Amino acid sequence: MMIEEKMMEIDCRGKACPQPVLMAKQALEQMKEGELRVIVDNPTAHENVERFVTSQGCSVKTVKRDREVTLHIRKEALSGGTESVRAEEASRRVVVYINSHLLGVGDETLGSILMRAFLKTLLDMETRPNRLILINSGVRLASEGSEVLETLRTLSEKGVEILSCGTCLDFYGLKEKLRVGMVSNMYDIAQSLLGADRLIRP
Question: pLDDT per position in the chain (202 positions), as tens?
């Protein structure tokens, strides 16, 4: 006798971030294993949902049709050992939170010099952060014209995830000028901050 595998489908078309991620999260929490199909209609939602479900250990395949994307997400039942390893890895996460393109309060020229020095120093550290989160004017650091683009690219190549707030990029008109890292959303940012073992705010 064959047991029918559980399959769920959620329609996230027209939903602004972070709603698609939240809806996918809630659906996955209701499933022990099986397939979840998520339908989105914009690139940002596609990227955010795919990144989130991958971080949860799920596999994902995408099918594109015109402007719509259907993500076929497979969740497997995890063993206790796998969950323990994931929890241990998460507990060691180091996150750097940057909310300005300047470091410190005072003279802007000095603040710019200090920020360049701080990011360059991260490259020389034996232990680097897992994630670098950029919000507010901090998103300028990863955008076209930034003096620290090469430093951020090198950090990215060395495994540091660089996330820029999508709302902030839109506000400053930089969405199309992001040159390193990924566009993120407030859910992903909040999850990173709450799940960090160490949070560094320069």
Answer: 333 456 889 999 998 878 898 899 889 988 888 899 999 999 888 988 998 898 888 999 999 988 899 999 999 876 555 554 454 444 468 999 999 999 998 899 999 999 999 999 998 887 889 999 999 999 999 999 999 999 999 999 999 999 999 999 999 999 999 999 999 999 889 988 998 888 999 8
Residue 131 makes CB contacts below 8 A (sequence gap 6+) with 93, 94, 95, 96, 160, 161, 162, 163, 192, 196
**CA separation for the pair 200, 184 (Å, rounded):** 19
CATH of domain 89-200: 3.40.1260.10
Name the superfamily (CATH) of residues 7-77: TusA-like domain (3.30.110.40)
Q: Would the CATH topology of 7-77 be identical to that of 89-200?
A: no
> What span, in angstroms and rounded, lies between the C-alpha atoms of 10 and 29?
13
The pTM of the whole model exceeds 0.70: no
Among the listed residues 172, 177, 131, the one whose alpha carbon sits nearest the alpha carbon of residue 152: 131
What ranges do the domains of the chain cover?
7-77, 89-200
